[in-house]
Specification:
Number of strands: 3
Strand order of the largest sheet: 2-1-3
Strand content: under 5%
Shape: flat
Oligomer: single chain
Number of domains: 1
Structural class: mainly alpha
Order of helices and strands: HHHHHHHEEEHHHHHHHH
CATH class: Mainly Alpha
Radius of gyration: 28 Å
Helix content: 55-70%
Largest sheet: 3 strands, antiparallel
């Protein structure tokens, strides 16, 4: 038994594979063989994640509109003609890229900020205030999270479609369902809340609020109440405590909530496709879908890939800009105390 242990210790290969690579003198050791195995798994995951991205980027630099017959992950030639064509005129509709970008920014940033402002005030009320039916209201806020977002589109569609502005005879304006043109006159439709960016923004805000409220409520519970009590002793009222103490401390989680909402709103397709019908209100995600044809051979694949890269860039830029706050919010949000 002892001789076997001595042989094992003298074997340089065994000593190399069992060498501690954790960099710590105490705690659980990490042998070299396990470190190598973890690195192989991480590389395999990285390759599986980066494969479609590298393929799309390579395809976007191709001057040919046809799909390559072979697998190419490194571009043989670099051409920016696809990007130029996408920026000049993305689709056959008379809508410029700047207009599409404005619509996407309006929905993603506007809905994200609106949902964040409403959610943080509601989360603070649920976290700090004691009022009747508090638990029941929290459950009611949680229920929409159990349903897919597309399942909520039908009631929101019908609700927003009821709000219309019509031009009646005699230059009279009717706002349905509050007023009507009267008689059998239908009037000329001037504005439909459902078929507008404002209506889609309201629908997307409604679907984004439940997650934002629950996410922020859990984080606000970790902020010590003693800080607010100390501020109250110094003469601060509820509004001052909320804006000057709670909001700065919750900034990391606010950034996380906004970023997660921004990703979902920027790439939102189902709601916008169901609600909007006018090309001037289309978003980048809708335009990307419009670039696909009935048959694979009719799709301009290099332009499709270039548009996909352009659509993905703002998400990466926002993440880089909020990286510090996002990492801080994710790490501190998981620890209570």
């Amino acid at each position: 038994m002892n001789s076997a242990k001595v042989e094992t210790k003298k074997n340089p290969i065994v000593r190399l594979l069992t060498m501690n690579t954790s960099g710590q003198t105490s705690g659980r050791s990490l042998p070299l063989w396990r470190q190598i195995l973890l690195q192989i798994i991480c590389v395999a995951i990285l390759l599986s994640v980066m494969f479609p991205i590298m393929y799309i980027v390579t395809l976007s630099f191709s001057p040919k509109t046809t799909r390559p017959s072979t697998l190419e992950l490194i571009p043989k030639e670099i051409s920016f003609i696809a990007y130029q064509q996408v920026l000049d005129r993305p689709t056959g509709n008379p809508v410029t890229f700047i207009e599409l970008l404005k619509n996407s920014v309006f929905l993603s940033v506007g809905v994200g900020l609106a949902a964040l402002v409403i959610a943080v005030t509601a989360a603070y009320a649920f976290s700090r205030l004691k009022f009747k039916l508090r638990e029941i209201l929290m459950i009611l806020v949680f229920i929409p999270l159990l349903m897919p977002a597309v399942g909520l589109s039908t009631p929101l569609y019908l609700l927003l479609n009821q709000i219309q502005i019509k031009q009646c005879a005699g230059n009279q304006v009717a706002i349905q369902p509050f007023t009507s043109c009267g008689g059998e006159a239908k009037g000329k439709l001037v504005f439909n809340l459902r078929d507008s960016l404002l209506g889609v923004g309201i629908a997307m805000t409604a679907t984004a609020l439940p997650f934002a409220v629950w996410n922020l409520k859990g984080y606000l519970d970790t902020i010590p109440k003693e800080l607010e009590e100390a501020a109250a002793i110094d003469g601060a009222d509820t509004n001052q405590t909320f804006w000057q103490i709670v909001i700065p401390l919750a900034a990391p989680q606010l950034a996380v909530t906004f970023f997660l909402g921004f990703i979902g709103h920027w790439q939102e397709f189902v709601t916008t496709w169901l609600f909007l019908s006018q090309p001037k209100d289309y978003t980048l995600a809708m335009t990307l879908y419009n670039m696909t044809g009935q048959y694979a051979n009719s799709v301009p694949w290099n332009r499709f890939a270039a548009m996909a890269v352009i659509v993905a860039l703002p998400v990466a830029i926002v993440y880089i800009g909020l990286q510090k706050q996002i990492v801080g919010g994710l790490t501190t949000g998981g620890v209570k105390g």
